[in-house]
Amino acid sequence: MTTGRHFLKPTDAAAVAEFAGKVRAALGGDVLDMRLFGSKATRRDVPDSDVDILVVVAEARTDVEGRILAIAFDVNLAHDVFISPSVVGRATLDDPVWRITPFLKAALAGVPV
Question: Is residue 6 within 8 Å of 76, Cβ to Cβ?
Fold first, then answer.
């Protein structure tokens, strides 16, 4: 568990750490940022809450999103959690309309992973 995510349950923290490590290993420098957001980050989760993670990549392509979803699937099975990744590309963050959407504002305000 890293500082900033100490509030997560041990199972969630282990799953987030494994997911982040595997995504970075698979995609390398294409991963620009990852943020924990949603109910887990705001400490308003309930027992069945998912683990929302924003994954910012250089270019959001179908194959990149597929790799990230496959990693989440494997980690979810291994840790009995539900990581729900949201994949966005740099172009989306650079777009002035997208950047001010409530979703992206909340996700970008999340906890770095």
Answer: no
